[in-house]
Amino acid sequence: MPTQRTDPALAGTAPGTDEAEAVLVEHYPRLVRLAYLTLPPALGRHRRVLAAHRTVQRSLPRARGTVRIGRERAYAWVREEVLAAALAHERRSPLRGAALRAVGGGLPFVAGLRLFPRAGGTDELGLDRALSAVDAAARAALALRVLERLPPSEVLALLADAGADAPDEALRTADRLAAGQEGRAEELLTAAEFDPCTVQTRPADLLRRRQHRRLGRIAVAVTLGGALVSAALSDARPGDPAVVAAGPAGSAAAAGALDPRRVVRAPAGDWSDSSRMDFTVWPARGGRAHDTALIGRALAAWGGRAAPDRRVAVTAAPGTDTAPPDRSPRLLFAGDTDGAAVVLLYDGGRVARYAEPVSGGGGAAALDVSRADDGDVTTDAALVVSRSPGSVRYLLAPWVAKTAGRDLLRPDTRARTVRVAADGVTDPVADPAAGASCGSWPVLQLRSSEKIAEKHAFLLTDLGGLSPAHLTYTPPPGPGAPARQPREATSGPALTSWARTACALPELRGSGVKAVNNWAFAEQSLPEHGGRATWVCSRADTWSGPGRVMVQFQGPSSTASARGTFVAKAENTALCSRFGQNVVAGLRWRSAAGHPYLLAAGSRAVTAITATGAVRAHAGATTLAVRAPRGGAVELSARLATGGTLQGVGSVEPLS
Fold it and tell me: Which has more pLDDT, 8 or 282?
């Protein structure tokens, strides 16, 4: 999620407390990891863990404001506060440091235990030693470059704003550290060695406490100010008692949250009288919706309390915490399907799917947890109940009135009805991942009840998560028309655009994608009467926030599903979203006569495009087309109607 510096009116503006709190909770693990990496290793791992949590929790704005600056800017503001506090820690005076150590420096506070991240291998240990040998600014720069994936210019600006003394030197040091990891810097920095949210415990001062007869009264107080330390119980191996949950797992409230008799059940008709359409109004369905033993095993698995004879494989979507729910979750489904007993639960921000063999008893079970916050009538319209070789079954929202399936690669073929059982579970639907050659791409086409919206149909596709991804489409800009907004991908032009894009969707599989939008940001008449091309930016937004884009060139074709040419990709970017509404990209193209050209196009606010490098050209329009050599580096830039400038996304590749 890049820092936003494009709106002078919001420069230096702190977000409202509610918005900042939402950002902090959403991104708590990554912020704590950033603080932990920046803080001085000389603190020792125990004090460094506590200091990292304290630093993040104290980053909220002190005044309760109402200004809303957007989630991405709010995250950037909180991240800068965290970074500034972590950098300042190394500059504190010895007297101030001693005082902080004496009183604990604020919550959280732990008595009787030592906390530290789980040990890594020799590579992680080597990197930890290397980090100990450089200053805090260099450690912060490495985290910003590798984990936050910020470009060098943003790293320098952020370090300077956070109070680093020599940002340039810090960045150079960070680049040397990253280069020394042989391409594994991200893998190592995301390992458990550097994760202060996954901790092990050991006792402290045992002899002294024994002398004072306090061995039986070890006091443990880990208060995180509303943000929970995520302990990796799901990763614990049998016989590893040192991995514990620092949070509600052992509290009375947590015990109540895991009581199957307390699960929340929405009445069957709630959705039709509600102003919100999400998982909160799904009724509890399935033939075993009142099987407290099954539901209890599902809750125990989520709480890390599965029976000793039951192995539970726990997986989580990217950016999803597997910590137990802190309140009784909603029961969405409990029933038998495809040889498994399945339970679907929702705790207000996450969906959990528990599955065990229908035979019950001991044996293996599985728990999948995925983000599911800020849902709506489309993103909360279906959940995966079961996967079989080549097919998927879904549980549909109660507001889905009509269900059909269609092949995204055949836009002219009509959708075919999919049968739905009385409990809301569909017949098996073909799994897009089953076809290795991308000969087809099955999607669900759902229609909402007229109680919600008249003739509202939308597309969902399976990308490996519990919730299928919502596909949308933004048409090309009209002459003099205002910017257009994403709409459902069910029209003829939308289906045609997606037919040429679908085979790129496997790249997004398993990355926690919430929605993908195809934005036709420009149209261009090709040289030598080559026809008309469309430039499309496909943006995938994840449940955890960061997005990635793929820019493609869709030239004229006699085949409806002819794949577009992807010319640029970017990750963790605001491009092609409402926070990044300007884009320019280009490629080299050969005409039917064999002549090489440089083509470029920009979005509606682009007034001029300039090419430099192996090709030097300028066009006072949203598109550019010039004869050009086949090779050599080319850089693109654009001028915007606002007077600003824009750099091209990606690099212009040579013709083969």
Answer: 282
What residues does 369 pair with on adjacent strands? Answer: 316, 352
Structure tokens, 587: 């490629």
108 prior amide bond cis, ω within 30 = yes
Q: What is the pLDDT of residues 342-360, one digit of tens each?
A: 999 999 889 999 999 987 5
Estimate the crossing angle of helix 136-146 against helix 71-89, to 10 degrees. Answer: 150
pLDDT tops 70 at residue 193: yes
* Residue 145 near residue 186 (C-beta atoms within 8 A): no
Residue 244 in 3-state DSSP? coil
Best CA proximity match to 562, nearest among 551, 550, 553, 573: 553
Residue at token pair 């720069």: 141
CA dist 648 and 585 (Å) reads 5
- Rounded to 10°, the helix 45-57/71-89 angle is 140
**Rounded to whole angstroms, how far apart are CA atoms 434 and 392?**
10
Question: What was the pLDDT predicted at 6?
Answer: 37
Angle at 215 between CA 214 and CA 216, to 5 degrees: 90
Q: Report which DSSP code applies to 378.
A: T
State the pLDDT at residue 311: 86
SS3 helix, strand, coil % of the chain, rounded to 5? 30, 30, 45
C-alpha distance across the termini of the chain, in Å: 34
Between the CA of residue 574 and those of 244, 314, 580, 592, what are the distances in Å? 37, 31, 5, 36
DSSP, res 327: S
- What integer is the mean pLDDT of 302-323? 86
The answer to whether 535 touches 488, Cβ cutoff 8 Å, is no
H/E element, 397: none
Task: Please check the confidence at residue 650 and state whether its pLDDT lies above 60.
Answer: yes
In the prediction, which pLDDT does 225 show? 34
Q: Which residues contact 113 (CB under 8 A, 6 or more apart)?
A: 201, 202, 203, 204, 218, 220
Peptide bond between residue 196 and the one before it cis (omega within 30 degrees of 0):
no
Distance CA 106, CA 252 (A): 25
Judge whether 142 and 37 are in contact, CB under 8 Å. yes
Token readout for 243 is 């991995």
312-322 residue pLDDT tens: 899 999 888 88
Please report the DSSP string for 340-370 in residue order: EEEEEEE-SSEEEEEEEETT-SSEEEEEEEE
Give the separation between CA 399 and CA 377, rounded to whole angstroms. 8
CA distance readout (Å), 160 to 44, 510, 563: 27, 36, 44
Q: What is the DSSP string of 450-510?
A: TTT-TT-EEEEE--SSSSPEEEEEEPPPPTTPPPP--EETTSHHHHHHHHTTGGGGGGGTT
Task: Compute the distance between CA of residue 407 and CA of residue 413 in angstroms, rounded to an integer.
Answer: 8
One DSSP character per residue, 109-176 reads: --SSEEEEEPP--HHHHHHHHHHHTS-HHHHHHHHHHHTS---HHHHHHHHHHTT-S-HHHHHHHHHH
Place of tokens 């943003």: 154
Q: Is 394 helix (H, G, I), strand (E, B) or coil?
A: strand
Count CB-CB contacts under 10 A for residue 133.
10
* Residue that has been written with the tokens 């907004």 in this structure: 485
Given this model, what pLDDT does residue 112 score? 65
Place of tokens 């038998």: 336
